Amino acid sequence: MKENPGNNAVTDFDADKVSILLIGTEDEQNEAIRLIDKHLRKPVAGVIRRVAPSLRAEDLCDVYQDVILAILQSAREQRFDANQPLLPFIFTIARRRAIDRVRRKSRKTANEQVLDVIAETLVDTKVGEAWRSVASKHDGRRMLEAIGSTISRLPERQRLVASVVVDLFPETPTLQRIQEEVHRGTGDQLTVVAIKSAWREGRKKIREQLVREGYTERDYGDIE
Known about the structure:
Blueprint: H1 15-22, H2 26-51, H3 57-76, H4 86-121, H5 126-137, H6 140-152, H7 156-167, H8 175-186, H9 192-212, H10 217-220
């Protein structure tokens, strides 16, 4: 699907030059990002707005920053292919980040509902007593926010896989199910091995962040 940003700034943008800069030195990569921001800010924001028209202005700004960071990260990690068309690459990232933001906002509401259901369903059980004991020490919603914040900062593949796992909570999805959901949401066809590796690394970072937030395994259990 081709994007038509409808902005004259794109016609003044030297995509070939920027592609070369992105595979260059750190200073050259920084210059590439400066040129992208100068010429493509409005077109990229337009793509984000079309994909997620319900986003508030501050969310739109956050998604735009996520797009710029993703481009830079791709260059820094030498994953950027200078032979690919640059504009479709950037606009694809914009669409995916917009979808990610909408999902995170929806997931936050869904997670709050899950917590409420757990509390209500287990209120008179021993499990419910354990839940209340944890809740008295830690805010369950804050824990979920910490997990969501960590996921949003993961590398793209880890973020995609971790987002699917969280979206399907409380179900524990198989690797094949994750593969299907990633493909359905992004069009990417990841191998089961790649998914397993991405979730292993993503899970490790989530655990580390929860420890920094003051949680222990007794609070969050084994994140599988």
